[in-house]
TrEMBL record:
Pfam families: Methyltransf_4. Its EC number is 2.1.1.33. Belongs to the class I-like SAM-binding methyltransferase superfamily. TrmB family. Pathway: tRNA modification; N(7)-methylguanine-tRNA biosynthesis. It comes from Shewanella phaeophyticola. The gene is trmB. This is tRNA (guanine-N(7)-)-methyltransferase. S-adenosyl-L-methionine binds at residues 68, 93, 120, 143.
Length: 238
């Protein structure tokens, strides 16, 4: 489970905007990860700029684009891109070994529809992603900040979900997943009062894991131990 972003929120859940609001987490790269970055960054790496991406130019085609915030080591993201070649995928991760591992897997799988950022997710989302450009935004297993006094640090807050909404197309989906039931309840509380969204669950709560989200090894182990995972999907309707 990786940190989604190193951006911080104050006690009211407001994003704290600083000149440097984050530190890239270099970590210790394996030789393979380092070689993968050197080999594949020119084709798959995206360098942060404060101007919106031209997705048609980046991918060389016009297709639905899926953005994942905090992809960890990237195995699931690479699998999704491999299994949906008709879609474009962008991943954001601050942990450099994760970026290296993702690029290594993508290179091995000959994936061509994936691009990655090694940067702070909030800055990329706010400045580099054009409004109304995403078919889906994925936030899988973000830091749960499980202590009650830290709940305001959770990334799913009112301001954040409206930023996500702005980036989604009408009909685009914000897909969250967590293995902390309390966080799933928090997500639903925030989303149920968020303007411009509709829950895709027929029961008004969670959904079954959709086919497009791969079952992770961590998650499969949790299932065997009786642990739950909660998927939440809200569509932009306005």
């Amino acid at each position: 489970m990786s940190d989604v972003t190193t951006a911080e929120f104050n006690e009211d859940g407001k994003y704290i905007r600083k000149i440097r609001s984050f530190v890239l987490r270099e970590g210790r790269l394996t030789k393979g990860q380092s070689q993968a970055i050197e080999a594949h960054w020119p084709a798959m790496g995206l360098n942060y700029t404060p101007q919106p991406l031209d997705l048609t130019e980046v991918f060389g085609r016009d297709a639905d684009t899926v953005l994942e915030i905090g992809f960890g080591m990237g195995a699931s993201l690479v699998q999704m891109a491999s299994e949906a070649p008709e879609q474009n995928f962008i991943g954001i991760e601050v942990h450099k070994p994760g970026v290296g591992a993702c690029l290594a897997d993508a290179g091995e799988a000959n994936v061509t529809n994936l691009r990655v950022y090694h940067h702070d997710a909030m800055e990329v989302l706010e400045h580099s992603i054009a409004d109304g450009s995403l078919a889906r935004l994925q936030l899988f297993f973000p830091d749960p900040w499980h202590k009650k006094r830290h709940h305001k640090r959770r990334i799913v807050q009112a301001d954040f979900v409206q930023l996500v909404r702005r980036k989604l197309k009408i009909g685009g989906v914000f897909h969250m997943a967590t293995d902390w039931e309390n966080y799933s309840e928090h997500m639903l509380e925030v989303m149920n009062v968020a303007e411009g969204y509709k829950n895709q669950s027929t029961t008004g709560t969670v959904v079954e894991r959709p086919d497009h989200r791969p079952l992770t090894k961590f998650e499969a182990r949790g299932h065997r131990l009786g642990h739950g995972v909660w998927d939440i999907m809200f569509e932009r309707i306005a």
